[in-house]
Amino acid sequence: MLLLVAVLSSTLLYSQKSVNNYAYVIVPTKFEFLKTADEYQLNSLSKFLFEKYGFTVYMDNEVPEELLQNPCNGLKADVIDHSGLFTSKLVVTLTDCMGTIVFESKEGKSKDKKYKVAYNEAVREAFEDVEALSYVYDGSAAEVATVPVVETAPEVKTTAVVAVVPEEKTAPNKELVNSEANSWIAKTKDGLNYTVYNNGNTIVMELLYTAIPDVYLIKGKDALLYKNDKGIWLISENDGAQMKTTGVMYLTFQ
After folding, report:
1. Which residue in 1, 14, 28, 250 has a CA-CA distance of 20 to 30 Å to 51?
2. Is residue 96 part of a domain?
3. Same-domain status, 122 and 185
């Protein structure tokens, strides 16, 4: 069975999974309901509390190479605001690389009138459920799709030639390759998943969210799209035995 198919199948069985199956937690630098990064120190507090209860935690701007290679081995943390008029209410969630919620806490509550105090009290109460998980990583999510790390940018002789042909002489998937002079547009409705259009406004592909920044599953393909450390978007496809870099994509995200 192809590797990414296995990942998708295991995701569909998420109800049988627990947080113990995942090695890492990724905390965003900014929660959606806040106006600025780490406002009220809520993101820093969340990272601290996850670490306190046994998790290995990274902010989304400091993801290590190991996690980039295994994006589905991490969970994305979030804090959701359910606040009412007089009570601050926060919920902590953990979401897998396919956007499925693996864990959701109770509502942490506070009636303090100061946001900083109220949010800190509420998030600490919500984390009581995280503590109750008694998290211990069991290593069962280790066999997931591996994104190859490209040390240097692929060599492109002209702007018209954008496909990278691996040493094994595997032909690039022409459906997934465009040119630097013909940048495609990626549009989103939910802020997570993207639809890619060519210059004729025809849908080329759909990109599915993962918990790792700048890493997407290509829907309907055993392939990933990811941005390397040089800022170049690369396509990596599964040939049934390993992941191979087969092309470059030029995208404008909207």
Report:
1. 14
2. yes
3. no
Q: Calculate the alpha carbon distances from 207 to 30, 176, 187, 191, 235 in Å.
A: 23, 12, 10, 11, 12
User: 57-65 long-range CB contacts below 8 Å, 24 or more apart?
Assistant: 57/24, 57/25, 57/26, 57/27, 58/24, 58/25, 58/26, 58/27, 59/26, 59/27, 59/28, 59/29, 60/26, 60/27, 60/28, 60/29, 60/213, 61/29, 61/213, 63/26, 63/212, 63/213, 65/149
Residue type, 117: V
Select from 192, 188, 222, 218 the least CA-distant residue to 206.
Answer: 218
Please, are residues 135 and 53 in contact by the beta-carbon 8 Å criterion? Answer: yes
pLDDT in tens, 189-226: 877 889 988 888 888 888 888 878 888 888 888 888 88
How is residue 82 written in tokens?
């359910």
Q: How many residues does the chain have?
A: 254
Quick one: CA dihedral 23, 28, 31, 32, positive or negative?
negative
203 occurs within a structural domain: yes
Tell me the CA distances in angstroms from 20 to 91, 142, 205, one per residue in order. Answer: 20, 12, 33
Residue 75's nearest CA partner among 136, 145, 21, 127 is: 21
pLDDT single digits (tens) 89-126: 999 999 988 888 999 999 999 999 999 999 999 999 99
Average pLDDT over the chain reads: 78
CA 68/CA 60 separation, integer angstroms: 11
Sign of the torsion formed by the C-alpha atoms of 154, 249, 97 and 242: negative
